[in-house]
Amino acid sequence: MPCQNIGTVIDGIFVNPGDSFDIPETASPQILAAPIVAPWLKLYETIEFIKKVQPQTAIPAHDALNSELGNAVCDNWLQKICKEAGIEYKNVHGGVVGDTYKVKKG
Predict the structure, then answer these.
(1) 101 neighbors 92 (Cβ within 8 angstroms)
(2) CATH number at residue 31
């Protein structure tokens, strides 16, 4: 049974689009939680999404279906693409609930 998508926007600068590539027009994401694996997406689509949104920082999200190796493959591609686009990529895999990460302020 399909479920309704729930995205998250905090102060217009942090965006997690949930099960989509939709960004509200009022948001100007500095930090983008980019979905990296789901039955409905290909990594290429995530790469294009990140390049289109152009956040200061991208972090992987929506990765529960990946194995450790799958996350490493995604991280390698996203680090390369983000570096080429001048976007900071924060690899948060291996973290635990409650971890904090510092990101550059815009």
Answers:
(1) yes
(2) 3.60.15.10
Indicate whether 53 belongs to any domain.
yes
Domain boundaries, position 52: 8-89
Rounded to an integer, what distance in angstroms lies between the CA atom of residue 12 and that of residue 29? 6
Classify 11 as helix, strand or coil. coil
Report the alpha-carbon distance of residue 10 to residue 45 in Å, rounded.
Answer: 24
Q: What is the sign, positive or negative, of the torsion defined by CA atoms of 92, 47, 63, 70? A: negative
For 86, the token pair is: 């001048």
Count up the domains in the chain and report the number: 1
Summarize the confidence of residues 5-27 as an average pLDDT.
Answer: 88
- 26-78: pLDDT as tens digits: 888 999 999 999 888 999 999 999 999 999 999 999 888 889 899 999 999 99
Q: In sequence order, which residues have a C-beta less than 8 Å from that of residue 42 and are 6 or more positions away? A: none
